[in-house]
Design a protein that fits this description.
Number of helices: 15
Number of strands: 15
Oligomer: single chain
Order of helices and strands: HHHHHHHHEEEEHEEHEHEHEEEEEHHEEH
Largest sheet: 7 strands, parallel
Helix content: 25-40%
Radius of gyration: 27 Å
Strand content: 5-15%
């Protein structure tokens, strides 16, 4: 246990020389909370007067409820369940006695506070006291600190009105109690409380100080602003078989107006001309392809939980170029705010002139889209991740949100779609330097191991890589970067729509992490078109999109934790046993419901 971290939420100093429990736990008054410390403006380097939590941190410091790390408060750091209990115990003893009276001879801080909590009805029965606390856990523990008369109702909120807290959910009564008293207010545009998000120090301080100072409590009306509403055209959305269970989607021979391209077999079919390949035979039917039930990634369940993101998440697509003016992509493209467009000057001094949307490393220019012939692959990947799901046209990008943006890094070009390893390396460096959190790498090769490994292993970003389309075992024949055994890299195989591994997909019981739908995937194509494509290149952005959604949704989660969450919630399939590490496929709905405090 890190005593220096725990002490951040102690009032005064602890003298371990005897435990005293107040004689009357039921009496008390808010007047027992008194200010005894002067807060100096700018005392913490990470807290300025414009921060939404600045008044709370000032009050918390003056009341002696919180302290910082020297000249930092650590606003985005997690707090543990034990620290939550300590806050609740401090609030309780100050309210009832007005004094610091928790002392214990010859025992640890943990034992002293566990004893006090148990004696005063403050919940302490948790399996891991050092785990990062969720918002729901913090609310439940804090609710035990003060009696009802200290928390009069300020807001009329009925049980069940909070969008993501049902009236019978765990800790619901405590959450609603604190909502009604103005202690909790929710923290996203959809009116949700986000009970499974971890609580961070600035949030904890804001909530704790509302407990001690009624002037800081909030009066509000709970409203849900559904700013992200799916408005996709039914015909196209129904053809995105990988997104939702129950789609009646079927590809029929010579009856589809969208072209099909299969990179693994180098076959291309124009609209209304393609035929069903023999290897696509499903249930003996060679005239149509129908998706099996439960072959989807459960995205509709994820959308119900997704808040649109509470932090900006930049996804770098290291690929061909992307049609940044596509009707379904133009609102999802990253813009370099430090660069003035088309002035011929390197405004941000990063070595790239007018790099507004990313960079074209293949041609060494700022033109990230050249033409439909050479930039279809990257455009297709971008659509799966972030196509506009609210514009009433085209398809639905899995992680579409104003907070998820696509950084275009073109490393392949020309008719053959070739590129150099140096382009990829430079693109990784660019992504890292310009704030990308996740890199989609729908590419694979058998060379460049040392350079790629050096860059990826030392990066803070999460990389999602295609396993390859040769139908081979990557445990025996490595491909890069997918075969790197790194905490910040996910390797993806191609799941066919009947829940089996696609014929041409690479696999590996120890080298490929999971599978995702990658066969006959409908996504954006250049010049406002749409196209079906097949390959691990199409499966990879499915996982990238899942990672982007998770990373943007949880403000304190790290890229390596995103990988853990995705792999832990993979849906097991018999067909994938011994074919990948998880033996399963991507399940975004399950990932968004996972309790991240256990990561």
């Amino acid at each position: 246990m890190k005593k220096n971290v725990i002490s951040l939420f102690l009032t005064f100093s602890l003298v371990l020389s005897g435990i005293t429990i107040p004689a009357s736990a039921d009496s008390g008054s808010l007047s027992n909370f008194t200010k005894h410390t002067v807060y100096r403006e700018g005392q913490y380097s990470d807290v300025n007067a414009q921060c939404w939590f600045s008044d709370n941190i000032k009050a918390g410091t003056e009341y002696g409820i919180v302290k910082g790390y020297g000249d930092r408060f650590g606003v985005n750091d997690n707090i543990t369940i034990l620290q939550c209990m300590i806050i609740a115990c401090r609030l309780h003893t100050l309210y009832t006695t007005g004094a610091d009276s928790i002392e214990s001879p010859g025992t640890s801080l943990e034992e002293a506070y566990l004893t006090y909590a148990s004696a005063h009805g403050i919940r302490c029965a948790f399996s891991d006291l050092n785990a990062a606390a969720t918002r729901a856990q913090f609310a439940a523990i804090l609710s035990d600190a003060l009696p009802d008369d200290a928390l009069p109702e300020k807001n009329s909120i009925k049980n069940g009105e909070i969008p993501d807290v049902g009236d019978k959910d765990e800790y619901a009564s405590e959450i609603y109690r604190l909502y009604r008293s103005g202690i909790l207010t929710g923290n996203d545009k959809l009116g949700r409380f986000l009970p499974n998000n971890t609580i961070i120090r600035c949030e904890a301080c804001a909530i704790a100080t509302r407990m001690i100072d009624p002037a800081l409590r909030k009066t509000f009306t709970l409203t849900a602003d559904n700013s992200i509403t799916l408005k996709t055209k039914e015909p196209l959305y129904k053809m995105q078989w990988a997104l939702t269970e129950g789609n009646t989607f079927a590809l029929k021979e010579r009856q589809n107006k969208y072209s099909i391209y299969e990179p693994s077999t180098d076959k291309s079919y124009s609209p209304y001309t393609w035929t069903i390949p023999e290897e696509a035979n499903v249930a003996g039917n060679t005239t149509s392809i129908t998706a099996s039930a439960d072959a989807d990634i459960n995205v509709e369940q994820a959308w119900k939980l997704y808040n649109g993101g509470v932090r900006e998440t930049i996804v770098a697509i290291i690929d061909t170029g992307v049609d940044i003016n596509h009707e379904d992509l133009k609102d999802s493209i990253w813009i370099n705010a430090d660069e003035i467009p088309d002035n011929g000057i390197d405004d941000d001094n990063n070595g790239y002139i007018d790099d507004v949307y990313g960079w074209n490393f293949f041609d060494d220019t700022n033109q990230v889209y050249i033409d439909s012939e050479q930039d279809a692959h990257g455009t297709h990947c971008a659509g799966t991740i972030a196509a506009n799901a609210a514009n009433g046209t085209g398809i639905a990008g899995i992680a579409y949100s104003p907070n998820v943006k696509i950084m275009v890094l073109k490393v392949f070009g020309g008719v053959s779609g070739s590129g150099k390893m140096q382009y990829i390396a430079d693109a990784i460096r660019y992504a890292e330097a310009n704030g990308a959190a996740i890199c989609n790498m729908s590419l694979s090769g058998m060379s460049g191991k040392s350079l790629l490994y050096e860059l990826i292993s030392h990066s803070k970003m999460l990389f999602v890589a295609a396993a390859g389309n040769s139908g081979m075992n990557n445990d025996k024949w490595s491909v890069y970067p997918a075969s790197f055994d790194l905490d910040n890299l996910i390797s993806v195989a191609n799941l066919y729509c009947d829940r089996t591994l696609y014929t041409h997909s690479n696999y590996g019981a120890s080298s490929v992490d999971l599978a995702a739908p990658g066969t006959y995937i409908l996504s954006t194509a250049p010049e406002n078109n749409y196209r079906f494509m097949t390959g691990t290149s199409m499966a990879t952005p499915m996982v990238t999109a899942a990672a982007a959604m998770i990373f943007s949704h949880y403000p304190s989660i790290a890229p390596a934790q995103v990988k853990q969450l995705i792999l832990r919630t993979a849906r097991p399939l018999d067909s994938l046993q011994q074919k990948c590490v998880t033996g399963g496929m991507l399940d975004l709905g399950a990932a968004m419901q996972y309790n991240i405090s256990s990561l």
